[in-house]
Amino acid sequence: MEIHHMPGHLVRRLNQISTGLFMDRMAAAGLSLTPVQFAALNALTEHPGIDQATLAGLVAYDRATLGKVIDRLEERGAVRRDVSQADRRAKVLNLTDEGWTLYRTALPHVQAVQPQILGGLSDSERAQFLDLLDKVTMAGNALSRAPLRPVED
């Protein structure tokens, strides 16, 4: 079928595969964690004390969806909202001890599943594919409804 050779279809299928592998690995490890929750935890390990809008930009998710993700992480005690020292009206996000434990527990499982996502490729093909995927993704970043917005130090 024609659709089987279209990039949009193939990227969607790879996302299905990636998400399925991630969720299976988390379930096998006894962890209740989604890919976007892991992305949020990861960003907060590297950028503690950021606001929700900045976090959304760092993980390339829309603010409304990410707000629900943060609500769930806060409900389970992994993230807390603190009053910003710079603007008392604003809230910033930080991992709790439980959040750090969840992140450190999940990280080796997330790292271990990555090669499976690109199964069938050699190490050099994986590196090339990731370089090209990064190039294509960044070339279209401005076209996204939720673009990646790195934090500038």
From TrEMBL:
Transmembrane segments: none
SUPFAM superfamilies assigned: Winged helix' DNA-binding domain (SSF46785)
Keywords: DNA-binding, Transcription, Transcription regulation
UniProt keyword Transcription present: yes
Keyword presence, Cell membrane: no
Coiled coil segments of this chain: none
Pfam family, one: MarR
PROSITE patterns found in the cross-reference section: HTH_MARR_1, HTH_MARR_2
Domain named HTH marR-type: residues: 1-138
Name listed for the protein in its UniProt record: MarR family winged helix-turn-helix transcriptional regulator
Higher taxonomy: Bacteria, Pseudomonadati, Pseudomonadota, Alphaproteobacteria, Rhodobacterales
